[in-house]
């Protein structure tokens, strides 16, 4: 297999990762919910966005840095919260953390991390913690305190997963975690089925989370805001009025996301929802874009639509599967190089200037 240094784009790593991974693990990573219409629509909606570049601009002084919740990121990118990195590489989240630190971008650690939060933060770098609200509210509060004590720089609460949607690939595969993979932040004390125990014609992971997770309300968000002084980010927002309400409730930012096409199938593609959310928020909070980012041009598209930065998910796992830490670093390096190139070719000296770009959407 060709090393990642031969990859000319992030997309080059996808087939290499698919070749490396077992079929059921690939399906767990790559698949979506329902008929996967939203999964496909995310990519199609991004591809419909075309940019109107400026010319004859002074590009003698350029940079790609941006401020994200008090951290100066090298590029407007953060690693999205992704479950169970050890499914694709034995070093798991530790390799991802080291690569993100080297690349100068934040890493979001999932509640479903396969490595303890403390181990990840000890690797250095800027770490955000992604919270899935649990049925046991006391344990939810304990996770928030644990993130604070571990030195996390922000708290990201996911609000579009009251339970895990039906994902047919996982059901057909009767997917369960291999014996060496577990979720130390969730633990086995939730009374939930063991995600490592195969359930015929069902996803053991979905059964586990269905028992452990709980729906989250606006009252719960207000309570969470009072419970922590960390910057609070609300992930899973698509409706502009929900974004406004989140900011008014004290959220420092929102993530425009349909969970990568893995929750409500038929939900609006995030690229189509982004502009209205940004307009509604009106600069009162940071807006991050998630679901479908595959290139530096996608980063530029998101910024031109009003986002402050993007989250990148599946490509990180592609790199991790192919070459561990070096593979993740390669993905992040490629994104930075592609974004640097696209930014300059669009006539923009820095990320802030990308907001001045006009966009035109090709008809669907």
Automatic annotation (TrEMBL):
Domain of life: Bacteria
Keywords from the UniProt entry: Flavoprotein, FMN, Oxidoreductase
Cofactor(s) this protein cannot do without: FMN
Name by which UniProt lists this protein: Alpha-hydroxy acid oxidase
This enzyme's EC code(s): 1.-.-.-
Sequence ranges assigned to domain FMN hydroxy acid dehydrogenase in this UniProt record: 2-364
Organism: Streptomyces atrovirens
Protein family (similarity comment): Belongs to the FMN-dependent alpha-hydroxy acid dehydrogenase family.
CDD domains, alphabetized: alpha_hydroxyacid_oxid_FMN (cd02809)
Enzyme class: oxidoreductase
GO MF term (any one): oxidoreductase activity
InterPro entries: Aldolase_TIM (IPR013785), Alpha-hydoxy_acid_DH_FMN (IPR012133), FMN-dep_DH (IPR000262), FMN_HAD (IPR037396), FMN_hydac_DH_AS (IPR008259)
Coiled-coil spans in chain: none
């Amino acid at each position: 297999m060709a090393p990642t240094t031969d990859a000319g784009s992030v997309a080059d790593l996808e087939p290499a990762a698919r070749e490396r991974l077992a079929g059921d693990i690939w399906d767990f990573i790559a698949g979506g919910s329902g008929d996967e219409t939203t999964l496909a629509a995310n990519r199609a909606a991004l591809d419909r966005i075309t940019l109107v570049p400026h010319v004859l601009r002074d590009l003698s002084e350029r940079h790609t840095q941006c401020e994200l919740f008090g951290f100066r990121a090298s590029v407007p990118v953060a690693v999205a919260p992704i479950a169970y990195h050890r499914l694709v590489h034995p070093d798991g989240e530790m390799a991802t953390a080291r690569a993100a630190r080297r690349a100068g971008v934040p890493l979001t650690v999932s509640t479903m991390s396969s490595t303890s939060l403390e181990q990840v933060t000890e690797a250095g770098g800027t770490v955000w913690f992604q919270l899935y609200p649990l049925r046991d509210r006391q344990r939810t509060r304990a996770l928030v305190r644990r993130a604070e004590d571990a030195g996390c720089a922000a708290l990201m609460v996911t609000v579009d997963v009251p339970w895990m949607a039906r994902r047919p690939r996982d059901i057909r595969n009767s997917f369960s975690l291999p014996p060496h993979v577990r979720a130390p932040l969730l633990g086995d004390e939730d009374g939930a089925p063991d995600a490592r125990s195969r359930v015929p014609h069902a996803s053991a992971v979905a059964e586990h989370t269905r028992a452990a997770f709980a729906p989250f309300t606006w009252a719960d968000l207000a309570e969470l805001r009072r419970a922590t002084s960390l910057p609070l980010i609300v992930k899973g927002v698509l409706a502009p009025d929900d974004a406004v309400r989140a900011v008014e409730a004290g959220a420092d930012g929102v993530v425009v996301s349909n969970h990568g096409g893995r929750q409500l199938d038929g939900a609006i593609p995030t690229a189509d929802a982004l502009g209205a959310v940004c307009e509604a928020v009106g600069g009162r909070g940071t807006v991050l874009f998630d679901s479908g980012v595959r290139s530096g041009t996608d980063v530029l598209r998101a910024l031109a639509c009003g986002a402050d930065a993007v989250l990148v998910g599946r490509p990180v796992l592609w790199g991790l599967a192919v070459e561990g830490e070096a593979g993740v670093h390669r993905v992040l390096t490629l994104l930075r190089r592609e974004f640097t190139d696209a930014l300059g070719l669009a006539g923009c000296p820095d990320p802030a200037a990308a907001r001045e770009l006009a966009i035109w959407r090709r008809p669907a």
